[in-house]
Amino acid sequence: MAPTPTTTAPTYTSIPIPTGDVISRSIHNLTSAISRHRPWSELVFPGAFRFPERLSSLPLRSRTNFRYFSVNYSLLIATSAALALVAASPVALVVVGTVIALWLLLHFFREDPLLLWGFQVGDRTVVCFLVLASVWAVWFTSSAVSLAVGVGVGLLLCTVHSLIRNSDGVFLEEDDAITGGLIGSNGRR
């Protein structure tokens, strides 16, 4: 038998970036994402609310609106949760808000590896820390019910809005429409 050639896959390493730069880039990514929200006047334009003529058009309308107003809906849910936490306890808002900010900066909007005291921190370690911090924050502030109610009210408002807002005048970018499953892609660009 002839020996089989072995190939090794190239390994890629990332260049460690100081923690301050990672955080500042995460903040930049977060503010960039928030800046993509649609104008609030467009969200609540009185002439845009109309019940659909056919119930079968509700899923498409809802998907289109959720895709188009996704940042606005996220901000609305966050505001609803914040109001519920303030009603429970202002300390709960500060503690839970800090943990949510950590999630946003260290997990969702971080592009570069995290470097602490000269050591690169792995993604699993960051997620484990954030999960433990989240559990501690909710337990410490006894805010699980308030947080669930706030998020639930925000989701309900967004769902009702997505169903009754007419999506005929909403125009998505082509890539957003394809990834949302609203139009098909034939594989050509």
UniProtKB/TrEMBL annotation:
Key word Cell membrane present: no
Residue ranges the record marks as coiled coil: none
Membrane protein topology class: Multi-pass membrane protein
Any GO CC annotation of this UniProt entry: Golgi apparatus
Main location: membrane
Positions of transmembrane segments: 66-85, 145-164
Keyword entries, A-Z: Membrane, Transmembrane, Transmembrane helix, Transport
Pfam families: PRA1 (PF03208)
Keyword Cell cycle tagged: no
Domain of life (superkingdom): Eukaryota
InterPro entries for this protein: Prenylated_rab_accept_PRA1
Annotated GO biological process: vesicle-mediated transport
Compartments, record wording: Endomembrane system; Membrane
Record-stated family: Belongs to the PRA1 family.
Physiological role: May be involved in both secretory and endocytic intracellular trafficking in the endosomal/prevacuolar compartments.
Protein name, as recorded: PRA1 family protein
